[in-house]
Amino acid sequence: MSQERPSTVYYFGTCLIDLFYPEAGMAGIELLQGQGVRVVFPQGQSCCGQPAYNSGYRDEARKVARAQLALFTEDWPVVVPSGSCAGMMKKHWPELFHGTPDQARAEAVAGRVWELTQFLVNVLDIRLEDKGEPLRITWHASCHAQREMGVVDEPKALLRQLRNVELVELAREKECCGFGGTFAVRHPEISAAMVGDKIADIENTGAKAVVSGDCGCLLNITGALEAGKRPVRGQHIAQFLKERTHG
Amino acid sequence: MVDAAAHTTIDFAKASRTALADQQLRGNFRRAMDGLMSKRAVQFADSREWHAMRALGASVRLRALSKLPELLEKLEENCTRNGIRVHWASTTAEANAIVLSIMQRVDTRLVVKGKSMVSEEMHLNAFLEEHGIEILESDLGEYIVQLDEATPSHIIMPAIHMNTKQIAHLFRQKIKDAEYTEDVARLTDLARRVLRAKFAAAEVGVSGVNAAVAETGTLCLVENEGNGRMCTTVPPVHIAVMGLEKVVERLEDVPPVISLLTRSATGQPITTYVNMITSPRKDGERDGPREVHLVILDNGRSNVYADAELRDTLRCIRCGACMNHCPVYTKVGGHAYEAPYPGPIGKILVPQIEGLDRRGEMPHACTMCNACVEICPVKIPIVGIMGRLRAEAVHPSSAVKDAGARASRTEALVWKGWAAANASPLAYRIASGLAARLGNMAPSSLPLLKDWTNVRTKPRFAGRTLHEMAREKGIADV
User: B69-299 sits in which CATH class?
Assistant: First the structure.
């Protein structure tokens, strides 16, 4: 995927970032602005609709997604600091609105959706200058970023641009952390076993921090790290990049 | 027995808790699945070849399904012409009755069986035993499971939940005069000694079918131990059982399907044995069964077929790769599903066959990570169908058996409230503002939060929203 460098982009912050990680959301906006791109954050935005969609409540998902569709009227890219929400918008909005009067609009918006790191690397060709101390980290790839958005190499390429950051990849990078939205509370024991395996993998890298592009995974992984009193900290990639490059 | 069970709801959560507590089991599965995943990866190392192969495999299966009724008629016609007797069963009870009547006609007391998941779906072993017929599993894994009085935990490797030590103990205990050995070759010899005698004595051999070719009336069966060939050639009567979706149109459709199957399943470019069965023993031939029967089972598949989206479920070639790659299956193993088909394909097939009342939880036992979709050799949109079944479970419709059985007024109200809060900017602003400020006061003992905080700290609300920060920083709204 590639496209002309746009002067303006929409930013869809996602509900999880809105409530739990607004600093990461802001960092994403500032990374884009730092590349000379004007960022528009429609204040009417809320959620992509995925929670209801994945729970089998499609009418409710459609109602919420339709309210978002109305916000992206200009032909600008829609940048999303989450592979999962971006996947919902890009892949599932067209399915959700198929055969409805909003089909064309949903397809048009879907075609303009980018996951943040994908946009930073493939469209903006961002160059990062690391101002931080030497640090070993690992990368947690979200399932939907990998498999719905095809985002695999971009975030790692960004992290490798940071001179003082040593990226040690997970042995099971492709394996789910066990979040899965309502799965985490619907099947808490299985989810716990999955995040337990993920944490063991993270600790085996010897990393001081685990960086990810999806806040659902982060809530799960950092919540379990903290509950187990593990010293590894978790951070969204936007905030991590922002902190490393602003000294 | 089977009928009584049909009305009970299966408690996957409870079964999975038991499985998770068994560290031995978790270790066995983790090791085995890791091995299978890497073997498969070697077979598809060339990604261009992989994409071309699975596109071909998917197209073969799609073409077959697009004319399924016609192909099934053609299969019957050509099998019949070849001397294979075709029987149709709309339910597992009918299929069992057909099999039993053939066995009673030839007056057999002993039957040998090759691996067949449809026979598991039929609970054939239990049914025949109730009628005084001894049926012996001849696939080594199935034999182990049968000795252990258990059920398969994987559709390709039925005894994958056990390690060598456990099998050694089992053999010592259950096989007459067996020594205790952890040597795999000697364990295999022990099983062979028992099985050889039975092959020679059995009057009937039962097998599954990997693909049935409509244009030639041929039954294809892949296997590695030669037991499939023994079951289908040594006893005077061979009965093959298959689900009605297993038909392919042409003989040339077989190589891509078989190749994708064996590479995906066990990481083999081809199995040790590939059986192509086109007729019983002909005049003047020295071996082969006198009679070959094909039992074609529906058991709800016609219903699945009737829905354009759900129909993709029937593309499956039963390679089991979705299980090997499923992070949930890898943790809990196959028995936790309490179903003939566990793992991702089971989560979409079994609820459609048995109904959403009994199996409504199965499509939820999934994080929707899409690992199965990524490796499915015939590109079944497993997670998409899972989502559809979640919707069917809570909304009455005619598409799926017992649709709407899991509808809950409380749950529906929660989602309606959620939609109202998220579809109106003003409502969202108020709700998110309140949540950001007051959310951290929620006690960890709240129902869902309690499940979350068993192994995690509470999610921490940030105190203010991104909306507020963006406004403060003067980020444009339009």
Answer: alpha beta
